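CORE FACILITY INTAKE
Project code: CF-77B
Contact: R.S. (postdoc)
Sample description: multi-component assembly, two entities in total
Requested service: structural model of the whole complex
Turnaround: standard
Below are the sequence entries exactly as provided by the requester. Do not edit them.
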Amino acid sequence: KNEVEQSPQNLTAQEGEFITINCSYSVGISALHWLQQHPGGGIVSLFMLSSGKKKHGRLIATINIQEKHSSLHITASHPRDSAVYICAVSPGTDKLIFGTGTRLQVFP
Amino acid sequence: DTAVSQTPKYLVTQMGNDKSIKCEQNLGHDTMYWYKQDSKKFLKIMFSYNNKELIINETVPNRFSPKSPDKAHLNLHINSLELGDSAVYFCASSQVGEKLFFGSGTQLSVL
């Protein structure tokens, strides 16, 4: 079993829908990252958080350290949000442990 | 200006060859990384360097040798390439405790 589990693996949505992607981890961490990988392959870091909640535009990331769980929310989803979203945790070193990703497709 | 640039973008080569992938960052970050993304799109860290010093070496075959001539560069040299080395390799950099910045990836195909 992977130390970082994401759900769902695949997600299809209609434009405008509210989307939630979940990440659960089984190790102690100093930080959690949410990454976005575009269909073209490039990877962008969306958030790094160690507690609470962060917001950037239509994206919101939350983390519950006690529950070892994080969520990434997308409000008013748009086709350009279609990508693979990857959760990764840092167990206190420079090492990152990655989830297997959630493939999101948003249709107009 | 690209923050983290890696070259080449595509690399097609025969088994047994030696090849290098170059990475440069202009963000002034202290830490640089190499990650491997397999055919199932799963990412895994290979190496981490902090200020030219090797910090992490994650059970990578010793055919893979990273070289950091200065803190802005981290190159990856691969000897005696094997079919299983085919993957996308990403370079990244960060400052301690901050977000990562990724290069655009190098798709390596070993024939």
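Facility notes:
- Chain B touches chain A at residues 31, 33, 35, 40-45, 48, 50, 55-56, 58, 88, 90, 92, 97-102, 104-105, 107 (CB under 8 Å).
- The mean pLDDT of chain B is 92.
Invoice: internal transfer
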